[in-house]
Amino acid sequence: MRVTDHRYRTEIDRFNLAVRMIGHEARTGTIRACTGFSEDRIRKIYNYYFRTGDGTVVRRRRGKSPTRIRHFVDSTARQLEASLLAGLFVLCAAAQVSAEGRVERPGGADRVALGERVCQAFEAYRNLFPEPRLSFEWAWNLYHALADSHDLYLAQCEICGGRYVQDAYALDYGRCPFCEMKDYRGTAQI
């Protein structure tokens, strides 16, 4: 038997995704949702690959994943980063956008492929923002608030026509965070 046999491909993909998500400090529940691995298996992967004797340890966050949506729209800077991350979800094929700005899961994507695409979008976001305001768990929450619960949607700016993350139940002034920052450049703080 060779490891390269087709029948092991799915298992290897799940394992690689688990390692990738642990590197992003994802919670066990999030990793379990994408890979289907048990909590014990995830802990063993973490202990074997991420605990080293030189003191460099990837932090393991405990508890439930964040679920609040206010975090994405309560400041212009976070709304800007959330909007950019939502655009990266679309570019990485983790999501599709309807004409009304509703974000939907792509058809035919299994949970491992979806997890890989969300990781790819988060890694691109981290390259654009070396000191990001949103962790991987907040990115996961953003994805679900857009694609599953629809508590957030992508509104269209009346000034530039661009899309931005907006609370579905809040008053929308029709201005994206980019235009907000442009208009208040002298007074706005990022």
Account of the protein in words:
The strands form two sheets. The protein has a two-stranded antiparallel sheet with strand order 1-2. It has a two-stranded antiparallel sheet with strand order 3-4. It is elongated and about 55 Å long. It contains eight helices and four strands, in the order H-H-H-H-H-E-E-H-H-E-E-H. It starts with 8 loop residues before the first helix and ends in a 7-residue tail after the last helix. The model has no long low-confidence stretch (mean pLDDT 84). The longest helix is centred in the middle third of the chain and has 18 residues. The chain is mainly alpha-helical and 190 residues long. It folds into two domains: 64 residues, no CATH class; 114 residues, no CATH class. Helix 1 runs antiparallel to helix 2. Strand 3 and strand 4 form a beta hairpin.
Task: Put the structure in a nutshell.
This protein has 190 residues and is mainly alpha-helical.
Topology:
Layout: H1 9-23, H2 28-35, H3 39-49, H4 70-73, H5 76-91, E1 96-97, E2 103-104, H6 111-128, H7 136-147, E3 152-156, E4 163-167, H8 177-183
Antiparallel strand pairs: 1-2, 3-4
Helix pairs in contact: 1-2, 1-6, 5-6, 5-7, 5-8
Largest sheet: 2 strands, antiparallel
Average pLDDT figure: 84
- Work out the helix count: 8
* Structure class: mainly alpha
Q: Order of strands across the biggest sheet? A: 1-2
Note poorly predicted spans. none
**SSE succession:** HHHHHEEHHEEH
Overall number of structural domains: 2
- Strand residue percentage: 5-15%
Query: Helical residue percent?
Result: 40-55%
Compute the separation of the termini in Å: 55 Å
Global outline: elongated
The total strand number stands at: 4
- Give me the Rg, rounded: 18 Å
